[in-house]
Each structure stands twice: as C-alpha cells, then as structure tokens.
Amino acid sequence: MDFKVVSTDRFRKTFRGLKKNEQELVDNAINKWIENPQASSSNFEKLSFTGDNIFSIRANDAWRIIMAKFEGQYFLLHTGGQHDKTNDWAKGKRIDKNLYTGAIQIYSGKIEEFEDENIVQEPEVEYAGIFENFSHEQLLAIGVPSEWVETVQKITSEEQFMKLWDVLPDDAIENLGILLEGEIDVKVLIKQIEYKASQLPEKTEELIEVQPGLHVISEDDKLIEVLNKDINVFRFYLHPTQHYLAYNNFSGSKKVTGSAGTGKTVVALHRVKFLADQLKEGDKPILFTTFTKFLIKNIQALFAEQNIPASKLEVHNLDKLAFKLAKELEIIPRSVKPIDSKDAWSFFLRRNQEIKVKQRFLEKEYAEVILKYHVTKEEEYLGVPRVGRGAQLYDKDRRKIWKIFQQYEAYQKYSKRYTRSDVFFQLCRHLERWPEDRPFSHIVCDEVQDFGNLELRLLRVLVNEGPNDLFLAGDPFQNIYQKNTTFSKSGISIRGRSTRLKFNYRTTEEIRILATNMIAGLEVDDFSGEKATTLGDTSILSGEEPKYITCDTRSKELEYIKNYIKASFGSIGLHEICITARTKKEAMEIYEYLSDNRLPVKMLVNLENLSDLDNHVGVSTMHGVKGMEFKTMIITGFCKDHFPYKPYKFSTWSEAEQKAFIQSEYLLSYVAFSRATSYLLITGVGDKVMMLT
C-alpha cells in the first residue's frame, strides 16, 4: 500500500477494552479496507456531518470505525460500539498539524456547543478565568488550537477545565494542566515546547514514526495482534505533566501522587532512565524499589533493554535490601533470619521475668512510638507524642519503660533474634551516624503508600540529601496496610515539590466512578499532613457500567461465576479475567470449585510472573491483586453481611484500631475495583452493600 495506517493512543486503548469478538469485527473491517481501499465492499465513506478529512468504515449495520486522512496517511481515531454513539463522537472532529508544537493534533470543532453546555455565566457577574492571565500568543504557543483560545480563557473552574479533555488535543490539555498546577513558568514551558518542535521532522510520513502516542501499522502486521501487544513502557506516550516529572531536575525530594491508573509507575520508570543517563563514572548507583513483587521481578529485564548497566541501577524489594545491607555492614550476624514481633517480645520477657509490664503494651509502644518516630534517646522519648496510645504516661513511667526498651535492644544483640522492624531501625541508626556508608546517589520508590514511617526513614538515610535525591510515587487511597506514612516525620522534606496526576489512562470512567465511590468521605492523609482528594480525576476511556448481582446462597454465587466465565469463552482471553475474594479460605474455595468444574484456573500467589497464567483464569485475595490490572475483575462475597470484613476478636480491639481497620477495608475495595480496565462484576450472597445500590 502507498499509504500508512496509524493507530492513535486513544484508539489503541479503546480497542484493547473490546471483547475478543468485537476486536475481530473491527480487525476484519479494517483489513478488508486496507486490502482494497477503493472497493465499495470495504464500506469506506466520507462522513457528511463532520470535517472534510474524517471518514468511517462500516464493520456492520451497527458498528463503525472512525478514521482521519491527513497528508496521505490514515489515522484510526475511535471505535466504541454502536453506530449512533460513534457518529456522535465523530461530529466536528478535526485533524491538523500545529504550527507551534509541530505535533499532529486531533480535536473538536464544536466550540459553540461546548460553551453552551459547559460555560454558563450569569449576567452582571464577574468571573475570573483560570487561564485569563495567559496571553493569546502564549496559549497558541503551548498547542491550543487558535479557534479554542478564547474559550480556554473563559474557563473559570477546574471542573470546566476537565471537560476540555474531550475536545482539545492531548498535548494542549496536558500543557494547560501544567500551567494550572503552577509546576513551571509559562515562558520556560514554551521554550521546552519550541525546542522539542525543532527536533521533529517536517514530513508527516516521518513525524508519525516518532510522535509519542502514534503507532504505525506495517503491511506485515496483523492489526489485532499489534493493538493488543503490550508496548514497552519506554514507548508509552508521556503526556507533558508526566514528561515534566520524569525528565526534569528537582532541587530536592519529589512527591508524585495520583489515583489508580494515572500512570505513576510509568513516570517512575522513566525517572530512573533519566537519572541513569545523568550518572557520571564513579557515582553511586540508583535504587528502584517498590512493594509489588511482579514489577520487581520484571524490572531488571526492562531496564536491561534500555542498556542501563547493573553498575548504575539496583532493583530491590526494600526488606531484602535492608537485611543485605545490615549484614554487609555487620549490624546483624549473617546467619540472622527475622522473627515475628510477638515471638521476639515473648522470648525477651521470659528471660526477664522481673518485668511486670504487659507484653502487648510494650510491643505496641515500641512499634508505634519508638520505631514510628525513630526515638534513639531517653530525652526524645520523654517528649515524643503518643497519639492513639491510650492512657497518658508521666515522665517517671516513661523513664521506666525506656530502661525496658534498652534491655530489649541489648537482648536482641545477645540472642541474635531480630524482627524485620528491628533491622530497619538499627540500619537507620548506623547510616545516620556514618553517612559515608550510604550506598545510593538517587532513589526512585513506587507504591510509597505501602511504606510506613520506619521504611521512609530508611529511604531517607540510604541517600544523601540533595538535588533529585528521592522520587516518591504513590496513591494515598491505596494504603491498605494501615501504614503511618508522613514524610516530614521521616525526615523527608517535599515542600513545594508535590504533584498530583489526575488523568486515568487505564480504567473506564464508569469503573473509576464506582471505585471512587467506595472511598468518598474518607479522611486519608496525602503523606504530607493534608487531606488527600480525588477531585478533578477523570478517565479518558468509557465503557460498560459495572454489574452487581447477589444470590440466595454461596453455591448459587459460585455457579453464577462459573457460567459468567463460560459465557466469556471466545470473547475475552481467560488470562484477562481475575477473581478475588476477601480471605485466603474464600479464594481457595473458588479455585477448587472452578477446578472441579474443569475450568482452567491458577492461584496468583503461586506465580512468578503474570505471563505464567497461560490462558488460565487468575484467582487471588483482594490484597493479592494490588499493583496489577485485568480486563475483567470479578469481586466475590461482596454483600451486606460480609462488608466491611471484621476479623476474629474484632470486638476486643480499641476504638482507634477498629476505625483504622474499617477504613482500610473501604480502601481495599477501591483497590480491587480499580484493577479492572474494561469490565467489573461484583457478586455476593443476600443483601447488597447499600452504597453500591
């Protein structure tokens, strides 16, 4: 063929959300057109109600694929299902090359309609536009199409700004987002855009090969395979906010937050590449760490593809790294293996029977005061706050307890019995005293919400303070392990260096809304002592509404799930389905039931890599799917009698402990729901959870 077919990022994401039979329908229609574009049987036709260069392919009477022709090349724009819905999306769409940014842009021309629906202003009321301080020329320079500049200057709220996502080009909306966040001065941003534009080729056939977010489909490619193939993370289109975070220097530690699916991990990985490219010979390596085991296991191969040598980068689970360093620095013996905190205190008190203070009190006080606030001296303990610890302790009582803690630490060295937390604590002490032993030049941490203050303190002392020292990415609403995560209490300063990502590139808007409803009204810390928020979040994809059904009995619920999976045969890959339950016992029950009914299933906990699913349905606890994504998620046992889940002896816990645990259950449901990219099924027995009805 004498032209190229280009998949846009949005088309690719929409296509991957379709069922297998729908993908095949789209694939057949496009391939038929490619084989003979001029044939009437290809159903390629100009759309009369939109721009001159917008076309469609009719896959059947109900399904259309929207395309654009620009300078001899064809761009796949949208395929979302029903004829009328797809046509509505196509109305007013335009494609052009921006004179200022040099990028090919796809956007809407329905300006008056947008203003009528979204910018309603009362007469004789003065409204302050959130972009009114930026000139016409500046907005043009950051990629806003000329016909949209005046409308952009009329935007008065973040809510109105979010509506621009559906009508403006991707690069323009993200550059506006940078200005709105105040991350960078407009003059500096324009200079960056001008430089990038100067590096782009002028010819469209060359530009489409290098512009992020565009993927050229060759003659030898099978469309359905190309669009479903995972893109290397370093080929992902980074929107300007993401690019700014990954490829800029910061004067100190940087915090990046965002809801599930906003691209935090992608940014963190690009950040590592940027820092590695800056390392000089003899510099200490970079540390990349995260809580998610599957990412840790795959990350080294990913960076090897980028030719980042092991001398420049270490990838570790923080627990393994802590024990490795503690042994190398001779803080603990090499033969030490961690023991449980309860066992450690039990051994100690049996050895010191003259101590009459209750074990539970000592264990909690040490963990929630000494370790949490990194208390190393008696005078520090006398002044440290004991928030949530119950009865007040006077100075004489604290002095008595402090002596017990000193005995405990001496017993650790004598008995060579250390808990995980003890090793972290002692390693922090050592690196504070001897900073020359700090092994890294920069640290990039993903899923930072899974680290408590003790782990954060260790991150702080593993690297010297300075430019680009710590890059910490996470979602406060995924703090399902009840970690106390406050940067300032761990010696980490991020004042003026904090950014929240708001655009969800993974989950449909319908699923995002339901997941977010589970955390509405919760008081969650954003790691900096402020209240975390999801205000302004939005997904770029839309799809089916989540489905919630309850059955009369557990056996009927399991039967429904079995039939649902069987009905999915041929329309979705089995490895794209994951079933979760709240407890290990319930997850195993599901696994055994489906296995007995001859359905191919695997427990995720037993896998080294997600690719090991090998066309089997995944089964896991809700905790076990953290950090993953599946096209279809099935959440089981979610009903009034079982949510929120309450463990054995819950009634004996303190009020503060109960409150924290219940909140973590709501956060856990948010995490599980948001693992679904396209389809979400929730099942249970008996009455439904009221907030989902």
Automatic annotation (TrEMBL):
User: Could you tell me the superkingdom of the organism this chain comes from?
Assistant: Bacteria
Domain (UvrD-like helicase ATP-binding) spans 237-521
InterPro entries cross-referenced by the UniProt entry:
DNA_helicase_UvrD-like_C, DNA_helicase_UvrD/REP, P-loop_NTPase, RelE/ParE_toxin_dom_sf, UvrD-like_ATP-bd
Keyword annotations for this protein, in alphabetical order, are: ATP-binding, Helicase, Hydrolase, Isomerase, Nucleotide-binding
Q: Provide the species name.
A: Zeaxanthinibacter enoshimensis
* BP term (GO), one: recombinational repair
Q: Name one GO cellular component term.
A: cytosol
* E.C. numbers: 5.6.2.4
**What GO annotations for molecular function exist for this entry?**
3'-5' DNA helicase activity; ATP binding; ATP hydrolysis activity; DNA binding
Q: Locate the residues binding ATP.
A: 258-265
Identify which top EC class this enzyme belongs to.
isomerase
Q: What is this protein called?
A: DNA 3'-5' helicase
